[in-house]
Amino acid sequence: MSSLLEVISLSKVYKISRGLLTHAYHPAVRKVSFSIKEKEVFALVGESGSGKTTIGKVILRLERPTEGSVKLRGKDIWNMGKEYTKKVSAVFQDPLSSLNPYMKVRQIIEEPMVIHKLKDRKRRVEEVAQMVKLPMELLNRKPHELSGGQRQRVAIARAVSLFPELIVADEPTASLDATVRKEILDLFAELKERGISTLLITHDIRAVERIADRLAVIYSGMLMEMGTKEQVLKDPKHPYTKYLLENVPVKHPKERKVRLQEESVQEVLDKGCPFYWLCNQRVEACKQSIKEEVLDGRFVACNLY
Ligand SMILES: Nc1ncnc2c1ncn2[C@@H]1O[C@H](COP(=O)(O)OP(=O)(O)OP(=O)(O)O)[C@@H](O)[C@H]1O
Questions:
Q1: Which end of the chain, N or C, is surrounded by fewer C-beta atoms within 10 Å?
Q2: What residue numbers bound the domain in which 187 lies?
């Protein structure tokens, strides 16, 4: 399978205002590289604040990277015109707020086709509804008349309405209950068979177990481990991946009891491993630098290897 989308050494630093004249810089994403193949579900897993959404936003061209680039089939995405929005689409966490409440489902799904001047729209809307298993009778309803799962199917139908090559799905099941969650996740696996890849962004490492082909684990804006689902979930190498798998659901970073030595926090964040403070296998070198290794085809950023 050839590479569809390449994220190359991507960094995003936000400038945060600290009063009238002062500001600070926050590195949300730090030199992240990965690629998504054709016909693949690639999961980006990390806790709240780890930088997942920022990466998704850059891929969707909603944010400019500070450094690095993103390429679709070898072309820089910022040099591509409107055709990029046909090839890469998005599904977000809360369908109710992302769907126009005044439009009927039919119009919501049709809208991107109108924008891109597609013909034969009625038939295509029905074809897309079928693809996402949305009952035809729901096409004449409005979003508030649907269940959470049905609404997310509408959002996915809209995302596939132009037959994209990639869907960026940011926490697409976070607002759904367990049974519906499973059905929606399965849908992404089915779309893969139709040639549509998915970047699945999630905080729940277990959610990707069913459908992801490969996954990348991100912490504090840095890639910790990346490999096939089997490699990363069955034989995790990075202490952070192990920690994530052992602590489901993971405590919010603010709830963890970690004693930080304030004077050295910045130093470690600048040069060393961001997981240093929680890692039970840390060595002195982790304060200063991180070794990047490829072990049996999987990427690990850790001084243990
Ligand atoms: N526009 C912004 N300005 C300043 N800081 C930001 C901005 N957007 C995100 N951040 C910060 O960048 C970091 C990464 O945020 P991001 O939303 O990408 O993380 P996430 O892993 O998707 O988390 P969540 O699941 O909570 O959204 C966080 O510390 C966040 O506070």
A1: N
A2: 3-217
**Total domains present in the chain:** 1
Q: What is the CATH number of the domain that holds 163?
A: 3.40.50.300
N residues, the chain: 305
- pTM, 2 dp: 0.91
- Indicate left, alpha or beta for 237 from its phi (over 0: left) and psi (-120 to 50: alpha): alpha
| 7-43 residue pLDDT tens | 999 999 988 877 777 777 888 999 999 999 999 999 9
Give residue ranges with CB within 6 A of ligand 1: 14, 16, 26, 28, 46, 48-54, 203
Cβ-contact 1, 40 below 8 angstroms: yes
Quote ipTM for the complex: 0.94
Please list the residues that pair with 298 across neighbouring strands: 295
Beta bridge partner(s), residue 288: none
Mean pLDDT of 70-76: 97
Helix (H/G/I), strand (E/B), else coil: 151:
helix
Hey, which of 26, 202, 220 would you mutate to test ligand 1's pocket, going by the most ligand atoms within 8 Å of its Cβ? 26
Residue with CA nearest ligand 1 atom 1: 14
Judge whether 303 lies within some domain.
Answer: no
